Amino acid sequence: MNIIAVVPARSGSKGLPNKNIAIVNDMTLLEMAINVGLNCKLITDVFVSTDSNEYIDIAESAGAKSNGLRKSHLSDDNAKSVDVVIDLLESLDKNYEYLVLLQPTSPIREPSDIEKMLNKINANHADACVSVSQLIEPHPYKLKLISKEGFLESLMMVEGSEVPRQLLPPVYALNGAIYVIKVEVLLRDKTFFPSKTLPYLMKENINIDTEEDLIFLKAMEKLDKITIWDKK
């Protein structure tokens, strides 16, 4: 199989400037994502998609490929990852069967996770697989809105939402670590979540969007609460 891994790394960010090249364990998050892709034996090529020549230099030094800078309309705050990835695929001469999306800002993952997700898709005749983590608190059944009149009301009108959390059904949130999808399905449906999308359950992840997130990530690793795969 020809499998492409894409690492999206836009340089503009507000909460944490240049968050995609924030450094953990003497390595940028961008390099960590590339290393995971390069060390997955099933992946054929690893590409970076960015609007920054600096990021291209970092990515290529880490072993990734580049097809030049993104188009300007794919580099602003409104750009969607799916549009960025499709534009890259359509610019390449090579055809791929699967695409793996590895976001630098969700660094808790291993090459073996990608392999398991690809195997899961094939075993279940699915089109995609996305990493998720169980959401413990707050449970969405317990979330509230403030009405136009200023009163609290339930976000989800579900009977029994005030029962103890342990009695509520488990729910899961996308953790951003890994998206795997058949390329023909991605190009056809223009989404990472076609109807036949499987979950891949992971214990936890930390999405880096602010300085506090980065501090928390480093603290959790120092306490051996998480393991960041950063091997070259």
Provide tags for this entry.
alpha/beta, Spore Coat Polysaccharide Biosynthesis Protein SpsA, Chain A, 232 residues, seven-stranded mixed sheet
Report what the structure shows.
This protein has helices spanning 29-38, 53-62, 81-91, 111-123, 183-189, 211-222; strands at 3-8, 23-24, 27-28, 45-49, 65-66, 98-101, 128-135, 144-146, 152-154, 171-182, 197-202. By secondary structure, the protein is of the alpha/beta class. The protein has one domain (3-134, 173-222): Spore Coat Polysaccharide Biosynthesis Protein SpsA, Chain A (Alpha-Beta Complex), CATH 3.90.550. A seven-stranded mixed beta sheet has the order 5-4-1-6-10-7-11. It has a two-stranded antiparallel sheet with strand order 2-3. Helix 2 (53-62) links the parallel strand 4 (45-49) and strand 5. Helix 1 (29-38) crosses helix 2 (53-62).
Topology:
Blueprint: E1 3-8, E2 23-24, E3 27-28, H1 29-38, E4 45-49, H2 53-62, E5 65-66, H3 81-91, E6 98-101, H4 111-123, E7 128-135, E8 144-146, E9 152-154, E10 171-182, H5 183-189, E11 197-202, H6 211-222
Parallel strand pairs: 1-4, 1-6, 4-5, 7-11
Antiparallel strand pairs: 2-3, 6-10, 7-10, 8-9
Reported CATH architecture:
Alpha-Beta Complex
Tally of alpha and pi helices: 6
CATH names the topology as Spore Coat Polysaccharide Biosynthesis Protein SpsA, Chain A
Major β-sheet profile:
7 strands, mixed
Helix content: 25-40%
What's the short story on this structure?
By secondary structure, the chain is α/β, with parallel strands linked by helices.
